[in-house]
Design goal:
Two copies of one chain form a homodimer. Chain A has helices at about 10-15, 20-25, 35-45, 55-60, 75-90, 105-115, 135-145, 165-180, 195-210, 225-240, 255-265, 305-320; strands at about 65-70, 95-100, 120-125, 145-150, 160-165, 185-190, 215-220, 245-250, 280, 300, 330, 335. With about 350 residues, chain A is α/β, with parallel strands linked by helices. In chain A, the strands form three sheets. A six-stranded parallel sheet of chain A has the order 2-1-3-4-5-11, sandwiched between helices. In chain A, helix 9 links the parallel strand 6 and strand 7. In chain A, helix 1 (about 10-15) packs across helix 2, helix 1 (about 10-15) crosses helix 3 and helix 10 (about 225-240) crosses helix 11. The relative contact order of chain A is 0.12. At the A-B interface, helix 4, helix 5, helix 6 and helix 11 of A face helix 4, helix 5, helix 6 and helix 11 of B. Chain A binds a DNA duplex (30 and 30 nucleotides) through helix 2 and helix 4.
DNA sequence: CCCATAAATTTACGCGCGTAAATATTTAAT
DNA sequence: ATTAAATATTTACGCGCGTAAATTTATGGG
């Protein structure tokens, strides 16, 4: 590290190559002559220079930036799927920028706006769903291709990639009905999670298909503290003996984790063994679900497949370029993860 | 929303104000005449224009950007403290950019490099500690003020804000010794977590102060799957009856969650009641620790205080500006959170 | 050695905005 | 109405880089 390099101009002069050629090198090292490349790389060894990414993107036709927006990074589900999407982008040679809307649908709009400045090649958006600003997303998509994942919005974005919640919930309902009492459904009155409505609907349909009458228990609660709400409100229902069967299907794993905690505190024996008196199941295969006591029976979404498909679908849009394909929806199947809680 | 506004020039012309004045408005709306402000805000109502943040920062002496770098956002501990830091910055009128190093110390360097392009006013860094690239952080700090939080690096950065782990671990050891058998210490052989070494040292010193002999159990395991390692390796130790007492202090909560899960599977009764045969405690008050079965006794770090102090320390550096104060270290006390696991 | 081709350089301009200095206009006070 | 102070506008340049077109230099085959 000799002296400070302030910009590409300076770096070009110390490496003995013209600035436009250096610029070309940084865009694609293979695009310059071998002897030139070696000179530049020798200079890179000696001097500490990194092109200013934001200045790079300022005047580019097409950048390698990909915006990734999720509703709430504090939720391990989104943190996990966000991470996978980030890695998939990096692997494809793009630079992902992961933004969290902190549980606030208005911030989703703000996030899309700040992304505009980045001139991303495309955006991967896990929207709030019906809480999202449809018009904002649509008009954004008119400029920059958006692929939705996790939660769908009808006719918004170029594509949607997610889980077939009707299939996955049916899998769980079928298993629960077959192996014991039919499940009640436990959820929040005003769910923030975009797929909660799908889960309830899927539960109802599936129960009816199995000749059972649906039993839904909806509790109050605001915000994203799902475990807390599940624990407090679920605990109340449990101690009141309010649930109509001994089997409870929770709207998602975070909710189930709270209920599990309440059940433990109240002395219930949760599980499917003969000595047990309560079964609890969730949905999503939350990173911590395998460590609950007992380990949580749940539905695993195929994070990996969803992340990879979202990324490849988006990239197909601007890499081939040509004919913009029809908006397509791809649903991956959920997998039943049988652990000990149900 | 009439027609598309492409840049400040266009927006200035439709609002009937000159571009430099509009620019002034966006930097500080109070700095322009009331009549001018009203014209601009009327135009803002009518047209959809947002200044390009990156172009804004390109030529600014001092931006309102704050870089925030944490080792691993997939770890709820960092996700939580990262969130708090973000919010504290926003509240102070700054724009935080939260970057995760994905558990990879090399990516920490990359993150600092990309931050340079953003010309942040300052950076809040939770480093890997001894795994971090000391020289890289130091030379970065020479240009842009860095405040370290969570993990310290001697003589690096303008300040450090964290928890007094010697105090906090002592609190726990004291409690455990007083209320039952003295604790063993359970950790990974090669801990990635920057504060793991502090925890071990603090445990040893504290045990000796209490006239007890330290008992440390270190297990193999790579990566960030702390729960899994805690469950598998801890479970092995438990079923071998390897622990020398019935009380186990885990290096952190994620580890404890894994051990708790193993203990449950092996039929241990975890808790401090008379019918229990195992006590497990952790450190950090992980967001999920209150929902484990039984709820985890642990040490709470003062997330809020650490986040706020880090932010205010950094801001004091460039807001007053004048005399750069001595490097200072602020340690907040941990709080003993007595729940049911120990 | 000549020539066709490939690659590098020069030149020139643009991105969207900040900022400083000079000038013009408005405002408030006399 | 006059004047000084406050605010706007104009003009001009810069940030760090992309990119296109014209020109020069290097490469390789015959």
């Amino acid at each position: 590290m000799q002296r400070k390099i302030r910009n590409m101009e300076e770096f070009a002069s110390v490496s003995g190559i013209s600035r436009p050629t250096v610029s070309k090198y940084f865009n694609d090292p293979e695009s310059v002559r071998v002897s030139t490349r070696k000179k530049i790389e020798a200079a890179l060894e000696e001097y500490d220079y990194h092109p200013n990414v934001f200045a790079m993107n300022q005047n580019r036709r097409t950048t390698k930036n990909i915006g990734v927006v999720v509703p709430n990074l504090a939720d391990p589900f989104f943190s996990e799927i966000g991470r996978r999407v980030e890695l998939a982008c990096i692997e494809a040679g793009y630079s992902p920028i992961l933004l969290s809307s902190h549980g606030n649908p208005e911030m989703e709009r703000d996030n899309l706006n700040s992304l505009k400045s980045l001139k991303p090649a495309g955006v991967l958006l896990a929207p709030f769903g019906r809480l999202s600003d449809t018009d904002a997303v649509k008009s954004f998509d008119a400029e920059i291709p958006v692929v939705l994942f996790d939660a769908n919005m009808p006719d918004v974005g170029r594509a949607f990639v997610g889980t077939d919640h009707f299939q996955s919930v049916d899998l769980m309902v079928e298993y629960l009905c077959r192996s014991g009492e039919p499940p009640c459904f436990f959820e929040m009155k005003k769910p923030l999670n975009p797929n909660a409505n799908k889960h309830r609907q899927a539960y109802i349909e599936s129960m009816e298909r199995h000749g059972q009458t649906p039993n839904i228990f909806r509790v109050n609660g605001e915000g994203w503290d799902f475990e807390e709400i599940g624990k407090v409100e679920g605990g109340r229902l449990l101690s009141d003996g309010a649930f109509s069967t001994n089997t409870i299907l929770c709207s998602n794993d975070r909710f189930a984790i709270g209920l599990l905690s309440a059940a433990y505190g109240l002395g219930f024996k949760v599980g499917h063994g003969p000595e047990c008196n309560l079964r609890i199941a969730g949905h999503d295969d939350h990173p911590f679900s395998r460590f609950t006591c007992p380990p949580l029976t749940t539905i695993a979404q195929d994070y990996e497949a969803i992340a990879n498909r979202s990324v490849s679908t988006l990239f197909a849009l601007f890499e081939k370029g040509q004919v913009p394909p029809e908006r397509q929806e791809k649903l991956f199947e959920g997998r039943l993860i049988m652990r000990e809680s149900a």
